[in-house]
Amino acid sequence: MEWFEDEGLWRELYPYVFPAERVAAAEGQVTQIVALTGVASGAVLDLCCGPGRHAVEFARRGFSVTGVDRSGFLLERARESAEAADVAVEWVRDDMREFARPGAFDLACNLFTSFGYFAREEDNLRVLRNVGESLRDGGTFVMDMVGRERMERQGMEPRETRFADGAVLAQQPHVNADWTRLENEWTVVKGGRSRGYRFEHYLYSGPGLEERLLKSGFASVRLYGDLGGSPYGPEARRLVAVARKAHGRPSGRPAS
User: Residue 6 burial (CB < 10 Å; 0-12/13-18/19+)?
Assistant: First the structure.
């Protein structure tokens, strides 16, 4: 079993991966995405939607929203959020390597470092091609992740976070020799007990992500340092890519 397939991991880490302040931040982030892309209406794909914090906010604003995630546990939390907000969202449990709905969406989002999970880089590229296929002509894809440049500057020092329930989260990142894969060991200590977890994914530089998007058939890519549209560079907090699908040519196929 791959780490992202472990429902117990998502269940046990949920309060620490998705604390209340992170859920509340989705409203402002969706405002930024709309401003950054210029897509103010239509159909949205939230790929790896998790508990649906962005999907629900898009639905509040009148978008037609489809949220896709592999975790049944996280999709249940998403359904609860949609019901509480009294909005309609289509929730789909699927692997992002498999999900494709040709020409269905004006905007696709993959947020919160939810890309690069697969050990075979071809599988990650397949995800990009699936998204391109699922967008309408001229559609837009927004990706948000921690970038390689950020991790190189930040370094591999351990970090510790304390939560209101008394839990302490210790994080220890590691990278491989060529800085292409990041492994993060999490240890949660609560009530005198501790438990460890491991995450692993590809670590992309800005130019590296741009190259992969173009290779997957997108017509243009712009890089930013956050969802607010700040410049991307060595000091950027995040790696945000806004990729456009060409008009009149399916993504994933080279121009003649």
Answer: middle
Two tokens, residue 226: 């956050």
Q: Which of 38, 236, 17 is nearest to 145 (CA)?
A: 236
**Which residue matches tokens 């992969």?**
212
The domains of the chain are located at 3-147+205-244, 150-201
Q: Is residue 252 over pLDDT 50? A: no
- What is the percent of the chain with per-residue pLDDT over 70, rounded to a whole number? 97
Query: Which tokens belong to 50?
Result: 């998790």
Give me the CATH topology for the region 3-147+205-244. Rossmann fold (3.40.50)
Q: Give the C-alpha distances (Å, rounded to integers) separating 116 from 56, 72, 137.
A: 24, 20, 25
Compute CA distances 7 → 92, 165, 168, whole Å.
Answer: 16, 22, 21
Condensed to tens digits (0 to 9), the pLDDT of residues 59-77 reads 999 999 999 999 999 999 9
| Environment class of 34 (CB within 10 Å of its CB; exposed 0-12, middle 13-18, buried 19+) | middle
HEC letters along 205-239: CHHHHHHHHHHCCCCEEEEECCCCCCECCCCCCCE
Q: What angle do CA 155, 159, 161 make, to 5 degrees?
A: 150
Instruction: Give first-to-last CA distance, the chain, whole Å.
Output: 41
Residue 90 has what pLDDT? Answer: 98
Does CATH number 2.20.25 belong to domain 150-201?
A: yes
- Per residue in 183-241, pLDDT (tens digit) is 999 999 999 999 999 999 999 999 999 999 999 999 999 999 999 999 998 889 999 99
- Return the pLDDT at 234: 84
| Confidence check: pLDDT of 256 > 80 | no
